[in-house]
Structure formats: structure tokens, C-alpha cells
Amino acid sequence: MTTNPILLDIKDLIIQFSAYKSVVKAIQGVSLTMHKGETLGIVGESGCGKSVTASAILQLIPCPPGKIVSGEIWFEGENILTKSETEMRQIRGKTISMIFQDPMTALNPVFTVGDQIVTVIGLHQKVGKKEARRRAADMLRLVGLSDPAATLKKYPHEMSGGMSQRIMIAMALSCRPSLLIADEPTTALDVTVQAQILDLMKNLKKEIDTSIMLITHDLGVIAKMCENVAVMYAGRIVEYGSLRHIFKNPGHPYTQGLLSSTLKLGEEKDRLEIIEGTVPDLSKLPPGCLFNPRCSQAEAICSREVPGTVEIEKGHVMACHL
């Protein structure tokens, strides 16, 4: 495991949302550590709490209906959950940036690309408009756009999905943040462009010396990008380890199911395996292990008691009775 200093340390995070006559338990005691220079993948089905965790790091949980019930999020030695909104505005974009799932909706349609990147640079780096525009052009060149001057004058609707995502990356990295959160950054793109964007992020990580939290449901993306992996299910982390641990020796039945449902390079199958059932209703959670209604290996204890975290091997832990 990495010996670099700790960058991000989430401790026992609990987040709930008020719904009609019920409470949705979106995040239930998530603890997670990231080191400087690391690319950490968070993987799981839709609705497992990946994006909610990312939003909490930036204090973007809408309140109401959302509420961070308890927990701590330490970033560069400070608990950012104690920060005011004014203080968070200085953190967002400057030391923590985020790339959202759909670049076409993340960009403001009424402002040019140049205006949007220049605003971010001017806000956090305290430089004049001319210098901010020069830096914006440099960032567009860095993300592989051939005519930065022309691109700065364009509006979001004039660009393809791949170009828009490159612009989102340029904007996110324009202030050289310590942490880049990428929430499903390639989902809306075709396969060829996906590969280009992932290669771009990998190269820029080294060039800008940043850390990446990569949120995805795609194990292929995890395999290409990450050193360490956290597997989430129904608001909890069920397994954590290095990429090699997770892919070569998956311990949790849910992780095993995810890997079995993915076709590997050179492999031939008549049909892919599936994980039976669906993610539980987060307002009506089953007792015991949350995965037990879908688990083919479940025993009596699984429906009675919540499993604690056990270490399978050094740095590789899971929450499972088995």
C-alpha cells in the first residue's frame, strides 16, 4: 500500500434524506482514506451512494431534504464539515475540483467556454482577466484541443460530448487542485472517446501532481485507472483493497458478483452471470447484512447481524460474516 501522506480521511459518515413519510439512509457509516498521489476507484451499482459521498466532500448535499447526520471529512488536516459556505467556496475548484457525469449539462449554456474557465481562474488565483484568459488557453491546449483561441469563444452547444468533457477537465484542473473527483466522467461518451479521456486524465494526473477519486460502475475503467478500489453497496463500503487484491482475490460475494458479470479480454461466454435481485429500498433496509437477500452464500447469521470489517490480507478488508 502507498506510504504517501494522507490527503482525505472520511470517518463514520452518515447521510440521510427526508422523503414522504420515510427517511432514506443513503450513507451508513462510510470510512475511507486517500493518500496524496493516489487514484482511488469507488465502484458499485447505481444508487449505492457513490455520488452522495462525493457531494458530501464538497458540502453539496441539498439541505433539505439531505442531512449529514454525523461523521467527519478530513482534508489536508482540516475537517471540512466544519467549514462555512464562504470557506467552502474557496475550497471548491481551488483545492478540490469535480468533473460531473454529463458535461453538456454541467456547462452553463449562456456563457462562452472562455468566460466560464476565466471566471474559475480569476476567482481562485487572483489574476487579471488577460492573464486568466492566457491560462485558460494553456489549459485547453493541455487537454488536447488544437485551437484554444477559437474554443474559448464557443458556447457549449457548439461542441461534441468529447470536447465538452475535455473542457470540464480543463476547468477542473485550471487551479491545480490537490484532489480531483471524477463522477462517471466517461459514461455519456462513446467507447473511442472514453479511452481518450481516460488516457488524458492519467497523463494530467502526473503533470499536475493531483490525486483522483474516480466514481464509476465500470470495472474496466477501474482496472485502467486505479491503484486502490472501494466497493460500495447500499450506502456502505463492503470491500476495500488494492487493484490487485480486488481483481485477483475478491472476498465479498458482491464483489465476486460484479467481477463475474463482466466479460474479460479474450474470454468467451454464451451469457454473462448476473446478481439476482435489486438494490434494497434505502428507506426499508433488510436486517443484518444488506446484501443477504441477494447473496447465494448467505447463512442464518447474515439476516440477523450486521457484519463487522475483517482483514483478509494486509490492506485488504471486507464487511462479511463469511
Shape: globular
Provide the helix percentage. 25-40%
Our estimate of the beta-strand percent is 25-35%
Instruction: Give me the strand/helix succession.
Output: EEEHEEHEHHHHHEHEHEEHHEE
Tell how many strands the DSSP assignment holds.
12
Mean pLDDT: 89
Give the C-alpha Rg: 20 Å
* Terminal CA distance: 24 Å
Number of helices: 11
Tell me what you see in this structure.
With 322 residues, the chain is of the alpha/beta class. Helix content is 32%, strand content 25%. It has 11 helices and 12 strands. The chain has helices spanning 50-57, 85-91, 103-106, 113-125, 129-142, 148-152, 161-173, 191-208, 219-225, 243-248, 253-260; strands at 6-19, 22-35, 39-43, 66-75, 78-79, 96-99, 179-183, 211-216, 228-233, 236-242, 309-313, 316-319. The strands form 2 sheets. The chain has an 8-stranded mixed β-sheet, with helices on both faces. Strands 2-1-4-5 form a 4-stranded antiparallel β-sheet, with helices on one face. A hairpin with a 2-residue loop joins strand 4 (66-75) and strand 5 (78-79). Helix 4 (113-125) crosses helix 5, helix 5 (129-142) packs across helix 7 and helix 7 packs parallel to helix 8. The two termini are 24 Å apart. The model has no long low-confidence stretch (mean pLDDT 89).
